[in-house]
User: What shape does this take?
Amino acid sequence: MHPDSAFRWEDRDAMRALVAELGFGALFAATPDGPRVAHVPAVWLDEATLGFHVARGNGIARHLDGATGLFVVQGPDGYVSPDWYGLDDGQVPTWNYVALELEGTVRRMDHDALIAQIDRLTTEQEARLAPKAPWSRATMEPATFERMTRAIIGFRLEIAGWRGTIKLGQNKPEAARLAAANGMEGSGRRGIAHWMRNL
Assistant: This one.
């Protein structure tokens, strides 16, 4: 994560909220085949445990149980033009971003826990689609659902390390940061502009 302490992010409730909002990230692990990554949907199982699943045929799957995993979430980001600050010389281009790394031990779930994780993930994601009627697995043939879930493996990440960065121009005067947020929005980067305005 960014070495400047001005950009350190330690608000775990806000970190949890970002993961819940995005619902997706990259799980990295060292394997005998070299470093590997799986891009996975994820759901909170409790305040320090994430649930996710990968395809049984994914090369990382056979190495995850008991491994140290690093789950990375990328929030909004964008290029910052030095002109946007409205400050004197000495400004350089940079990149503002929100990012989170969660490190811990990965444990394989049994089949029932996998089903519960899928149900929880589906319920959370379907709720966002209102007023659409929520989809549920009750609409599927049970044999089809069973066959499909046998093709994936569920895991939990027991988080021991939380590392966050919110690099939003906190090292600039407020007026300069807000001017840069306007530039961000004007360039189509509304998400990062919102974060910059709401420090």
